[in-house]
Each structure stands twice: as C-alpha cells, then as structure tokens.
Amino acid sequence: PSLAFGMALTRIGCFLNGCCFGKQCDLPWGMVFPLDSPAGSTLPGLRLHPTQLYSSLFDWLMVIALVLLDRKKRFDGFLAAVFFIGYGLFRFGIDFVRFYETSVRVAGTALTYNQIISLSLVLAGTAIWLLKPKHPRHK
Asked: Which whole-number Å values give the CA distances from 76 to 39, 73, 103, 129, in the listed order?
C-alpha cells in the first residue's frame, strides 16, 4: 500500500509540473497546460488527457484495495502479486492515451517500452500468484 500511496502523490506532482501528460483529447475534462510547462511547450494550447490525474486516482484506489486485501492476505507475496498485476494492466492501458515521442515506441509497433515493462509486471505478479506456497499463511 505504501508504494501505491507514494505513486499517487508523485502523479499529483507530475500534474502540477505539467509532465507525464496525455495526448490531445476533446473530452470536457481535457486540460490546457501553461506554456512554460513541459505539456504546454510541447503541445501549446491543446486540450490534453490529464493522464497524471488518471494515474493518481488509480493509485489511490490501489491504496484502498491493498489495505483492504491486507486484512485477508492469503499467502506471502499476495499483495505484491495484486499490485504488480493491477498496476501493470493499468499502466499498459494508460499509455495508449499518454503522449510519447516516437523514439519511445518499440520499433514497428504502437507499443511503448513502458508497456513492455508493464506486461512484465503482470507476468511477475502472475508468477508470484502461481508459485504461492501450498499451505496458506494464517494470521
């Protein structure tokens, strides 16, 4: 839970700084960032997905979920598995609306290197889940 908490706060900082921003959007909650921010200087005057806020909201939900799941911990590594799978899936998805330079894309695909890392987190969480001890830990 503390990792998700730290990430939730960090993404608020990203929003205030104008970094880690999204692609152009026409949604009512699209944000126009100041010209002296990374988002505003890269895509001036355009409404952008506030991906930092999407990420922060998800991270706050992860904090709540992990705290609640901690009470029902099923095996050592359970919370890590849940975090890796949940965060990996979310990060894979959010990167479709997040702005990246073309150099960050995996050659010949629409995927980013971050999405490949995200899939690795999902695989790691799944491996932890599948390799759990046969005898659950009791509190």
From this structure: 41, 8, 39, 10
Of 102, 128, 127, give the one whose Cα is nearest residue 113: 102
Interval 23-37: pLDDT, tens: 999 999 999 999 999
DSSP type of residue 105: B
Cα atoms found within 13 Å of the Cα of residue 25, Cβ hemisphere only: 18
d(CA 83, CA 129) in angstroms, rounded, equals 11
Model pTM score: 0.89
For 80-136, write each residue's pLDDT tens digit: 999 999 999 999 999 999 998 877 788 778 888 999 999 999 999 999 999 987 665
* Residues 6+ positions from 99 with CB-CB distance below 8 Å: 21, 22, 23, 39, 42, 43, 48
Element (H, E) at 27: none
